[in-house]
Amino acid sequence: MVLSLTVASCAGSGDGGAASAGAPTPAATSPSPSSPTSPSPTRTYPLSTEPRTIPAVREHQAARGPGWKPGGGSAVVLAEGSGALADEGRLLAGELGTGYRGEAAARPGDVELALDPKQGGGAESYTVTTRGNRVRIAGPAEAGVFYGTRTVKQALRSGGTVPEGTVTDAPAKPQRGLHLDIARKFFDAGWIEARLREMADLKMNQLALHFSDDQAFRIESSSHPEIVSDPHLTKAEVRRIIALANSLHITVIPEIDSPGHLGAVLRAYPDLQLRSAQGNARQGAIDISKPASARLIDELLREYAALFPGGYFHVGADEYQALTVSDPATSFPQLAAAARQRYGPDGTVQDLAEGWLNDRAATVRSTRKKAKAWNDGFFADSAVTPDKTIEAEYWTGKEIGARPPTAYLAEGRPVVNLNDEYLYYVLGEPNDFTYPTGERIYEQWTPRVLRGTTPVAARYDRQILGGRFAVWCDLANAQTTAQVAEGIRMPLNATSQKLWDAGEPPLSWPQFQSLARQLD
C-alpha cells in the first residue's frame, strides 16, 4: 500500500523534505480550469528500511518519509538537562560538518541528543527517532547516546540519509573489545589511538593492553624504572590514550601477567627467577616461594592501577612453568616447601599458584578494580579455590589439566570469550595457529562458542559476559604494524557484529564485506 502525504507547497516546505536526498519526484496534479481549489501536489514514500550499520541495529520501526541528512542550517543540539553530552555533541557535529548549539531547542534539520533516565534498556541502549526532518538520539546514559551517534554517522555514510522511523538498539553482551600484545611488539600511541577510533564506530567498549612479557616491559614506571624496555609508552602517552578512550566510551584494561611471562621484569631481578632443583632457570617464571616476589608484583599492580582508571585489571596467571613438568614438587622443592608451610602437609605447588592468583586479585580489589585472569590459571584439583569474583578469560583447552568451559560456568563463574580457535591473531602463525578470518567469525562463531567450534548450552548465556579479539605478537617481525591493522580489520568488524547480536546476521558475508568497505 502507498500512502500519499499532502503538503502545503511544492518546494521549500517547512519540514525540509523537498531538499532531502533520494526523495521521490512529486506526483503533480494538473489544476482543473473549472475549479479554483485544485488539489495540492502530493509525495509518496515507501516504508523506510533499517539503516545499514556495523553492527546491525537490532530493531527498526519503519515509517514513511524522506529521512534526514544534514543541510546548510543543520546543527547538533542537546536537550534540556543533557549538558553531560557536550563531548558527544561536538564530536558528532565535527563528523557531520554541522553546527553545534549546545543546550537549545531543536529546529528542523537538527540532531538532538537527549539523556532520558526513564528510558529502559540499560546504560548502553539508545533510540534514534527520525521524523519531521529532525533526528533525536536518546538513551538513559551517555554511552547509549554515543552509540546512537555512531548509528547516525554510519547510516549517512552507507545510505546518504538516516531512514525515517525509530531505531531501538542495545548490545547482547556488556564486554566487547580488542586485546593487544604491546610487549612482544611495540605499537605506538598513534597506532593505538587509530584502533580506538575504529573500535568506537563498531560500538566496542574495551581495549586490553598486555604490556609485560618475557620480551619487554612497555610502559614507563616510576616505582621500578629498571624494568622498562625501549621503545615504550610514556605515562603521558598512556594518559592521552586513556583520555581518548574515555571520550569514546572505551575502558582500557592493563594486564601484568604473573607468575609467568615476567622475563623482562626478571632481567632486573635475577634473584627472583624460578630455578629447578638442578639450578636451571625457568623462562619468565618468578619464584612464588619468595616474599620479595609478591612485593615486587604488588608494587607494579598498584602503580598501574593508579594510571589506568577503569574498573578492571588483568593479572594473567597462565602458563606458569613450574606447573608444566610432570612432578612440580620434585622439580621445585622450594615451592613445595612453601605450599606445605602455607596450606598444611598436603599443600601442593598448584595450591601455591592458586594462592598467588588470589593474592594478586586481592591487591587489585584493594584499588577498587575487578580482577581478570586466563582460564588456565584456575585449577580443578587444587585445595585452594580461586576467588569467585575473578572473571575467567577463556582462551584455550590445550593446557595441562585442561577443563572444558562448562566446568567454569557450572561453578557460577563469570566468563569472557577469547577462544583461540577464532579470536587469536598470532603473528607468524606459530604452534598451528592460523590468522583468523572475519568470514569464519561471522558465519560460525558466537559468544557461546568458548572452546573449539561447539557452543555451550544456552542456559549459560548470561554468565558469558562477552569477548575480545586478541592480537599476540609471538613472532613480532612477521608483520608490520600497518599489516596488523589491515589484517584485523574485518575480524574486528565480524566480532563486533556477533557480540552486539549473536543471532543470524542480516547480511551475507559478501554483503557485510561491501558494507564494511563503504563505512571505512
What is the secondary structure topology, with strand pairs?
Elements: E1 4-6, E2 42-44, E3 60-62, E4 75-78, H1 86-96, E5 99-103, E6 111-115, E7 126-131, E8 134-139, H2 142-159, E9 165-169, E10 175-181, H3 189-201, E11 206-212, H4 235-247, E12 251-258, H5 263-268, E13 273-275, E14 281-286, H6 291-307, E15 312-316, H7 328-331, H8 333-343, H9 349-366, E16 370-374, E17 391-394, H10 405-410, E18 415-417, E19 424-426, H11 438-444, E20 464-472, H12 481-487, H13 489-500, H14 509-519
Parallel strand pairs: 4-5, 4-6, 6-8, 10-11, 10-20, 11-12, 12-15, 15-16, 16-17, 17-18, 18-20, 19-20
Antiparallel strand pairs: 1-2, 3-9, 7-8, 7-9, 13-14
